[in-house]
Design brief:
Layout (H helix, E strand, L loop, with lengths): L3 H34 L6 H8 L3 H7 L3 H21 L9 H15 L3 H13 L4 H25 L8 H21 L10 H14 L3
């Protein structure tokens, strides 16, 4: 009886690992399909074919197309922040270190063609599918802004009178930079070094007083 318990636990662990692998296989295939065809023209049949699974397998992991798109957003954005700061986006270092780490993770996204294509998809289809824009804000900008706002509020030595507004300005400035330079091809017209931009932004935030 006792010997069967470890075997059962091992089987469950193997099944869990298999499920996670299969889920990632679906997400990887879905990224290619969504970024090629856009949200409107992506079907679960196309995703299934690209992922090498049957459609029922997709629905066993994702309830609908919106849920699958949310997973894509998380894979291309939020997971990079979780890898850097943990699942709760916990910021515990000094302000200059935290701001640079956050900025660096954001800036690394601009060098990922899949992320830039995702941004173009969200923007291009947000008029017909506003839920896509809401998904991006709720999945990426919202959690980062909320965590950074709480961090600013806890750092009394910074004397930041508006932690939430400052967090919004910091995150929004970086997103705006990526949008202008990469999504809208601004780097070909008005090039501006990302490190110089980040250094200036951090100095502005850390230099403010009540």
């Amino acid at each position: 009886m006792s010997s069967s318990k470890p075997a059962k636990a091992k089987t469950q662990a193997n099944l869990s690992q298999y499920s996670q692998t299969k889920r990632q296989q679906i997400v990887d295939g879905a990224i290619r399909v969504f970024l090629k065809y856009g949200y409107a023209d992506t079907s679960m049949n196309r995703v299934a074919e690209e992922s090498g699974v049957i459609k029922q397998t997709i629905y066993s992991h994702f309830s609908d197309k919106e849920g699958l798109f949310r997973a894509i957003i998380e894979t291309l954005t939020l997971e990079h922040f979780r890898n850097e700061f943990g699942d709760n986006l916990s910021f515990e270092e000094s302000p200059d270190v935290v701001l640079r780490r956050i900025g660096t993770v954001f800036m690394q996204r601009k060098d990922d063609p899949s992320y830039i294509a995702l941004m173009r998809t969200v923007i291009g289809e947000s008029a017909r599918f506003p839920e896509l824009a809401r998904l991006y804000v709720n999945t990426v900008i919202g959690p980062a802004k909320q965590a950074l706002s709480a961090y600013f509020a806890a750092q009394k030595q910074l004397q930041i009178s508006e932690p939430e507004a400052t967090a919004r300005i910091y995150c929004g400035s970086i997103v705006s930079y990526i949008m202008t330079q990469e999504v809208l091809h601004g780097n070909e017209i008005i090039p501006f070094d990302s490190e110089r931009f980040l250094n200036t932004l951090i100095a502005m935030v850390l230099g403010q007083k009540k």
